[in-house]
Automatic annotation (TrEMBL):
One GO-annotated biological process of the protein: cell division
SHS2 domain boundaries: 7-204
Keywords: Cell cycle, Cell division
SMART domains for the chain: FtsA
The protein's name: Cell division protein FtsA
Domain of life of the native organism: Bacteria
One Pfam match: FtsA
Length: 720
């Protein structure tokens, strides 16, 4: 029995996911089974996965159903739709003089080297120094050359120089990673990745036909992918985000149908002369094919216009000789005719091609043939002919995917991760030039250190080979030591002075400034530093150099914040004496001087009020029962936070205070009781009279300074 190779491929489209199984033997392919499941929700948009979980569920369902008939499926070939597509050409030339004849593995290595070169070019054009943000999703060989002459195949050839020119297509990392994530959730490994236009063109337009200028358009639900051939090769790839869904939405709008019913109606139009639909209002209506086409004609024109404009631009602003249409969207009514009109081509030069156009292919009888099967079949076949296999290696815990060639090294992985090789080794320490007291001094640097490379937690080198799943850790080498020299190492011995500060003796050393900032002698030197070394000349410089900043602070004016405004009270500030005489902070000093700092003291609320000329209280002298008495009312109230302060409460430097001026009210007789205690005589009966200056008064009558106030109690009546 012949050994047949089983191929499993998925076409993950905007509208549905198609799984297909082929058997391959001696370049002959047989479609064994096919299963398509539509998305239940809009999990795809313009060919890109937007809901990984939803897509992975459909993939899992397809996988499980196919496994029931065909056994376990572990690996799958897939294609990307081409959203945000980037296309680039690249050529690699190698010296083969004196080497064994070229083998298939050697050619693959050259091709993938060219792909990596193209990847760098894409990065430079679209995102500088970020080639690792793009993944290659397919490539086609344009030419093989041997010693400068074009040749059909390099296998078993010998000469001096061999070259390969390719055209490669790239997608942003996020597009490919979402595809891989969906496969992993379905327990599938991506065996190979290609691009949908590559998949279709490889099975419909073999190399022998590529000397013709032909456009292939794969019209799906969300995107229309385009590939162009000419002069024996594929010259360009492109994509427009307009496809079959545009037509479905037009039918939905015109016939008042929900989207699934509109999709069904669109498919019936391809085979029926009339369709019967039930709109959202419940009315059943029959439409002729011509009536529906007339209503959705603007949408068909927009689809044709978008496709033709992209073909025209990709083809050097001219129409191709012919156009092939594949994919489910290609069956849109009158689409081939309108594309022909817009490209000025005869109608018979634009045609829908189905799987019957694929050479060396047979298909199981149970499978319905149609243009929508071209791409999934092409994916399986193209992924075998021009595969892009990936090896996943983790660099500093981040996954990096590389082209699987005969030998991949640690260095290859670092490049793919975007790590610049010239930045791995520490920079040599550059010579430092500093200025010391106006004189330039040159300080030589040291060599940089090597990087630390670990593979699976073991030390490795850049040329060590890596395998799928290896864990790499990269720690850049240390830069050359250029900053280990301290300022004190540049200085000779400097003069010292001795002073007494508040009875304690201090040695005054040189003050060192680095770029105008006072530093200690232990500070490291930096390139272009301007260093000045001088002994302190004023008292404040002495205190700062001795780190006696609290004394400097104590000599600053006494400060409080009153009602959100800063208030300075120099009278209560600290005082500075040199040899018994009061001086200022900026005064000079001499060797053996005695310096005394009297720190600022707290003040009372009364002192602050006097300084701010605020009256705290209003007093009134009166006489009560013949005794002189002073009544007092608060008219200015100070607060610290929520605490009311008394006259004798202390205020510290930096306190935040508020004050409130109260409205003055005249004293009344009743205010007297806040300052005296009145006791009723033992023989009094409880009745009393209030007298002011011997005249009867009341509790609420106003009193004035010098008034004589009395409370007269009535005696008890004699007992009977």
């Amino acid at each position: 029995m012949l050994d047949k190779k089983k191929l499993f491929a998925l076409d993950i489209g905007t509208r549905s996911v198609v799984g297909i199984i082929l058997e391959e033997h001696n370049q002959q392919y047989h479609v064994v089974d096919m299963l398509a499941i539509e998305h239940s929700e809009r999990a795809m948009l313009d060919g890109q996965i937007h809901d990984v979980l939803s897509v992975s569920k459909i993939i899992t369902e397809i996988k499980q159903q196919l496994e029931k008939k065909h056994g376990p499926l572990h690996k799958v070939s897939v294609a990307a739709a081409g959203r945000a597509l980037r296309t680039e050409r690249a050529e690699v030339i190698i010296d083969i003089k004196g080497k064994p004849m070229i083998q298939k593995e050697d050619i693959l290595h050259i091709e993938l080297s060219a792909v990596q070169k193209a990847q760098s070019s894409v990065a430079e054009k679209h995102d500088e120094e970020r080639s690792h943000y793009y993944y290659c999703v397919g490539y086609s060989v344009l030419y093989y050359r041997l010693d400068g002459e074009e040749i059909g195949n390099l296998i078993d050839q010998q000469g001096d120089e061999a070259s390969v020119e390719i055209i490669a297509t790239f997608l942003p990392k996020v597009v490919v990673e979402s595809l891989i994530s969906a496969l992993h959730r379905a327990n599938l490994e991506m065996e190979a990745l290609t691009l949908e236009p590559i998949a279709a063109i490889n099975v419909l337009i073999p190399p022998t036909m590529r000397r013709l200028n032909v456009a292939l358009v794969d019209i799906g639900a969300g995107t229309s992918d385009i590939a162009l051939t000419d002069s024996g090769t594929v010259i360009a790839y492109g994509m427009v985000p307009v496809a079959g869904d545009e037509i479905t939405e037009a039918i939905s709008d015109q016939l008042l149908l929900d989207f699934p019913l509109a999709e069904t109606a669109k498919r019936e139009l391809h085979t029926n002369d009339s369709i019967t639909v039930t709109d959202i209002l419940g009315f059943e209506t029959e439409f002729s094919k011509s009536d529906v086409i007339a209503q959705i004609s603007p949408a068909i024109d927009r689809l044709a216009e978008s496709i033709c404009e992209e073909i025209y631009n990709l083809n050097g602003h001219k129409s191709p000789k012919a156009v092939m249409l594949v994919g489910g969207g290609s069956q849109t009514p009158e689409l081939p005719k309108r594309i022909a009109e817009k490209l000025n081509l005869p109608e018979n030069r634009v045609a829908i091609r189905g799987i019957d156009a694929i050479q060396s292919l047979t298909i199981d009888e149970q499978i319905t043939k149609g243009p929508e099967l071209v791409t999934p079949i092409g994916i399986a076949i193209a992924a075998q002919k021009t595969p892009v296999h990936y090896v996943t290696v983790y660099v500093n815990e981040q996954p990096v995917r590389l082209f699987e060639v005969k030998k991949l090294t640690v260095g290859d992985c670092l490049l793919a991760a975007g790590i610049k090789m010239n930045k791995l080794y520490g920079k040599p320490g550059l010579a430092m030039i500093v200025t010391l007291n106006g004189q330039q001094i040159t300080i030589p640097g040291e060599h940089g250190g090597p990087p630390k490379l670990l593979k699976n937690e073991s030390i490795c080198s850049l040329d060590d080979e890596v395998q799928n799943g290896d864990q790499l850790t990269v720690v850049s080498g240390a830069d050359g030591e250029k900053n280990t020299l301290q300022i004190k190492e540049l200085l000779d011995e400097v003069p010292r002075k001795t002073v007494s500060i508040n009875g304690e003796e201090y040695q005054i050393t040189t003050t060192i400034t680095q770029n105008g900032k006072v530093v200690s002698p232990d500070v490291l030197i930096e390139d272009r530093d301007s260093i000045e070394c001088k002994i302190p000349e004023t008292i404040d410089e002495v205190l700062i150099s001795l780190n006696l900043r609290d004394l400097v602070q104590s000599l600053k004016p006494f400060r409080v914040t009153l009602d959100h405004k800063e208030t300075f009270l120099p009278t209560f500030s600290g005082r500075l004496f040199r040899n018994g005489m009061e001086v200022k902070l900026h005064s000079s000093f001499e060797h053996l001087d005695e310096i005394v700092v009297e720190k600022k003291r707290p003040i009372t609320v009364r002192e602050l009020a006097e300084k701010k000329q605020m009256m705290l209280n209003h007093t009134l002298p009166v006489f009560f029962n013949g005794q002189e008495l002073e009544l007092k009312k608060t008219i200015t109230e100070f607060r610290r936070k929520d605490q009311i302060l008394s006259e004798e409460d202390t205020i510290q430097d930096g306190d935040v205070l508020t004050h409130q001026q109260k409205r003055f009210k005249p004293f009344i007789f009743q205010d007297l009781f806040n300052f005296v205690e009145v006791e009723m005589p033992a023989r009094a009966q409880g009745n009393f009279r209030l007298l002011k200056n011997n005249q009867q008064t009341t509790f609420y009558d106003q009193i004035d300074a010098g008034d004589h106030l009395q409370i007269v109690w009535e005696n008890r009546k004699s007992e009977a």
